[in-house]
Amino acid sequence: MGSAEKLKLGMRILLYGINFAPEPVGIGKYSGELATWLAKQGHQVRVVTAQPYFPLWKLGNGSKAVKNLYSTEHLFGLEVRRCPLWVPRKPSGLTRLIHLASFALTSLPVLLSQRCWRPDVVITVAPAFFCAPGAQILQRLCGKGCQGWLHIQDFELDAAFELGMLKGKWLRGLAEDWERRTLGRFDRVSTISAAMVQRAQQKGVEARRTVLLPNWVDLEAIQPQGPAEAAANPYRQELGVPKGAVVLQYCTSEQLPK
After folding, report:
1. Pairing label, strands 12-16, 121-126
2. Segment 190-240, tens digit of pLDDT
3. How many CB atoms are closer than 10 A to CB 126?
4. Distance CA 258, CA 219 (A)
5. For residue 229, what are the CA distances in angstroms to 23, 217, 250?
6. What whole-number distance in Å separates Cα of residue 186 and Cα of residue 210?
7. Domains of the chain
8. What is the CB neighbour count within 10 angstroms for residue 211?
9. What pTM was estimated for this model as a whole?
10. CA 18 – CA 10 distance, rounded (Å)
11. Side-chain half-sphere of 167: how many Cα atoms within 13 Å?
């Protein structure tokens, strides 16, 4: 199981994470595409996730009413089991942590019920790292034939301390020790860039257990525009972007239209 491409055909794969399709951006989009891709490779895929809420931090993302309850649906040919969670109206450092922990708690019984299905691989997507212990309990319940895989989209504990959401050397020491021990229990730890793979290794993950699993754009399909195309680009004209200037775009949930 050196990489996603080397998974044996016909495996039962459980994808576990707080975000999933139809969330249009962020981790939910990536996880939805990963699960769909795995199913197209001939694997049986199930998903345990939350009710959709991102990027608007509102259940249903404003498109339709969503009840904050347990539910099961079939999406892209996948069985998706959704769990309730607490969604803060105004996310902050503390409320984000409570939000992530609420999903880890409400999803635990649904997750452990998958023991009857006996997955061959349990892929846990972080954030939320709070979900990792539950995934490891399920792996142990399923026996030696079940492999645990942690896919890291973001090192959330590092971010929480570096952005000041959590503070204190003593608290950080405890958090990093828990993180290190948790990472050490997974058979594979993947992440989205070479620098993040190196970061995982610095946290004690053996190099042979790390996997680079990027989710960036296909650079053969999407490339910078040439001079003529750039000059005719209506967005550059509307915004008055000077000729030859390089434009970088970034969008957060607060910037999206509501």
Report:
1. parallel
2. 999 999 999 999 999 999 999 999 887 777 887 878 888 888 889 888 989
3. 26
4. 31
5. 31, 20, 22
6. 10
7. 4-216 (3.40.50.2000)
8. 19
9. 0.84
10. 25
11. 3
